Amino acid sequence: MRKQLTLILGFLMIVSGLTAQTSFEREGQASSTFSVYQKSFKRPGESFAKYESLIKTLFKLKDLNWPSKYIYIRSFKFDSQLEVWAKNTMKEPYKLVKIFKVCALAGTLGPKRFEGDYQVPEGFYYINHFNPNSSYYLSLGLNYPNASDRILSDQIKPGGDIYIHGGCATVGCIPIKDEQIAELYVLASGAKSAGQDFIPVHVFPIRYDVQKSYEYLGRLTKDDAALKAFGNKMEQAFEYFEKHKQLPIAMVRDNGEYAIYGADSVVERFVPVPRIKSKYVKANREIEYVADVVAKWPDYPGGIKEYEKFLKLLGKEMVQFLPENVAKATAQVEYIIDADGTPVNFKIIKGVDEYFDHELIGAIQKMPIWTPAIYREKPVAKKMVQTLLIGIE
């Protein structure tokens, strides 16, 4: 029997016998007045006053209509980028409008699968909530869990409340700086006012056209068939857009897997090179089993707030080791919280230079003992990946 496919994204929205209704419209407001409504709030009002004129000028230079009802957002976790694309009509190709820097990352590559896993979702989403009074300045909510996530993620606690937001801290969202979320909020509000109720947001593990990123994902998925298959589907969607500058049609099979309509087979972009073992690794242990899935993640002493405080202080301390004329940087470190809670096997994934990386490993491995992860009611070792903001408030 042919497997059923479910269309999940707003680039082709079919609602049988119903008109799609947003929460905003249910509150009695017309979509055409959405920007006016947003301007009634302090932060969106200030954002429109500061950025709308600049956005209009930018769109005019790119021969794009403002406001546009064809906005597309895509984000790349490993490469820490968020792009905004737009076009004037359905048949036209998309044009790149803006690139924003994602300033923090929680978890590692791969989709979000349960509440508290610190993962940023990967897949095909759309904006379903505008928060003008966010604790992170302004925020745009994503419809996680989507149709695929509801099948493949934890059935009881898949997690939620995933946003693109301001501030450079996250435990599973996509953070950009306050001035950038202000501009993005204006772009998205304008699109919604123009009639785009479903603004697509595609979240990819990497930029598949960047060799370093491509090779890293290849190493990460080498012995993980499920993650590799997921990454291949995301690559198909990436390649489709790169080729056509039109949105891929992403559907969900009855087993939760994505299917990309009209996509070509994945062809390896780069020949992988052997990974050079880091000479900065210290405090190594031989660990027989590192859990991929756990019932409870490791806990830093005092909880997530204390962990964030530790990382913030570390980021400030490491400024002195940056290269000359470099005031800010990001780095990414992988380590394992062993079954006894000891942080071990530190290695640099994304570094700055030899001197800085050496000092960073020496500093971060001084973190205290954690409460270990739990799987089947027993403590287990769990791999962690952490992005560090050096000199970035």
SSE map:
Elements: E1 5-7, H1 23-26, H2 34-39, H3 42-61, E2 71-76, E3 81-86, E4 95-101, E5 123-134, E6 137-142, H4 147-152, E7 163-165, E8 174-175, H5 178-193, E9 200-204, H6 211-221, H7 225-244, E10 249-253, E11 258-261, E12 290-291, H8 304-317, E13 329-337, E14 343-350, H9 354-364, E15 373-375, E16 378-390
Parallel strand pairs: 2-9, 7-8, 12-16
Antiparallel strand pairs: 1-10, 2-3, 3-4, 5-6, 5-9, 6-7, 10-11, 13-14, 13-16, 15-16
Which residue ranges are poorly predicted, with pLDDT under 50 across at least 5 consecutive positions? 8-31, 273-281
Second CATH tier, the architecture of the largest domain: Beta Barrel
- Strand order across the largest sheet: 4-3-2-9-5-6-7-8
Radius of gyration: 22 Å
The rounded distance between the terminal residues' Cα atoms is 55 Å
Largest sheet report: 8 strands, mixed
Q: How many individual helices?
A: 9
Query: Total number of β-strand segments?
Result: 16
The CATH topology label of the largest domain is: L,D-transpeptidase catalytic domain-like
Return the structural class. alpha+beta
Kindly report the average pLDDT value. Answer: 86
Order of helices and strands: EHHHEEEEEHEEHEHHEEEHEEHEE
The CATH homologous superfamily of the largest domain is named: L,D-transpeptidase catalytic domain-like
